[in-house]
Design a protein that fits this description.
Spore Coat Polysaccharide Biosynthesis Protein SpsA, Chain A, 264 residues, 9 strands, single chain, alpha/beta
């Protein structure tokens, strides 16, 4: 669905939206995903840019990105070492130019067509950060029945992470790890300037800092697509890593390392 009622409001060529894609070893999906995003954005009445941050992929992902770049105006950043999803998103956000920034996972779990529900409340001034939540009313999972046992186990793993997050850092959020979030440039840059976590737990730190800075956060339902790709997340040791990162966030806050001053 085109975002026909969202316009940049000027003819100067200013970029309204930056789409940031962190990726690692996504050779099977990154090309088709970029095609979908590019096609969708070309139908909109605003200027946008795509920034892909390759976390030093070891497959042909970077080759595919370079090939795509020859015929499409996208930005490509490649890390010198494998540095984690949080680092990739931060790097992409800091290199972006859009008034609003969307970051989404590169595994095609979410569609760019969901943009309308995320960008609209930001443009209306209703909030500063919009995050997808797979556990609230009207969210949907789209998958073959044969994948139900795996998705059930993945859901249980997500519940463990959610309980840990709410217990230690963020009491009111039930899904911090959804890979589809949109925010104003002002909020995003300010948050990522303070961001310390480079790995899987960066989403929690992002929301923790957003609240401490006084930014208004809104949760919206999403459609999650699963086509059989196994998750890289494992119960062990990732639960331990996650727990340690949560403790680090609390520790950093107690030591005053975030230097947080609420926005007006």
């Amino acid at each position: 669905m085109p975002v026909n009622d969202i316009k940049s409001g000027n003819g100067s060529g200013d970029i309204l939206l930056s789409v940031v894609l962190p990726c690692y070893n996504e050779e099977e999906k990154i090309g088709s995903l970029l095609q979908d995003i590019q096609h969708y954005l070309e139908q909109q009445d605003f200027n946008a840019e795509i920034i892909v941050v390759d976390d030093r992929s070891t497959d042909s992902t970077h080759k595919i990105l370079n090939q795509f770049c020859k015929s499409h105006p996208i930005g490509i950043l490649r890390n010198e070492t494998n540095s984690g999803k949080g680092y990739c998103v931060k790097r992409g956000v800091m290199a972006s130019r859009g008034k609003y920034i969307l970051f989404m996972d590169a595994d095609r779990a979410y569609s760019i067509s969901a943009l309308y529900d995320f960008l609209t409340p930001l443009l209306r001034g209703e909030c500063d950060v919009v995050l997808g939540n797979r556990r609230i009313h009207r969210s949907r999972f789209v998958l073959s029945p044969k994948y139900l046992p795996y998705i059930y186990l993945r859901h249980l793993l997500g519940q463990i992470f959610s309980v840990l997050s709410r217990w230690i850092v963020l009491p009111r959020y039930t899904d911090t790890q959804c890979g589809y979030k949109c925010f104003s440039r002002k909020a995003g840059v300010r948050i990522f300037e303070l961001q310390r976590t480079k790995g899987f737990c960066f989403d929690v730190e992002f929301l923790f800092l957003a609240e401490k800075l006084g930014y208004r956060c809104m949760e919206v339902p999403v459609i999650f697509h699963y086509d059989g790709e196994p998750s890289s997340v494992r119960l062990f040791p990732h639960s331990l890593y996650y727990l340690l990162d949560l403790i680090r966030i609390r520790f950093n806050d107690s030591m005053g390392r975030y230097n947080v001053k609420k926005t007006e």
